[in-house]
Amino acid sequence: MKISERYREILKWFGENMPVAETELLYSDPFQLIVAVILSAQCTDKRVNMITPPLFERYPDAASMSRATTEEIFGLIRSCSYPNNKARHLKGMAEMIMTRFNGVVPSSREELTLLPGVGRKTANVIASVVWKSPVIAVDTHVFRVSRRLGLTPGAKNPLDVELRLTREIPEAVRPMAHHWLLLHGRYVCTARKPDCLSCGLRPWCAWYAKNNGKIS
Question: Looking at CB atoms within 10 Å, which of 2, 24, 38, 176 has the fewest?
Answer without folding.
Answer: 2
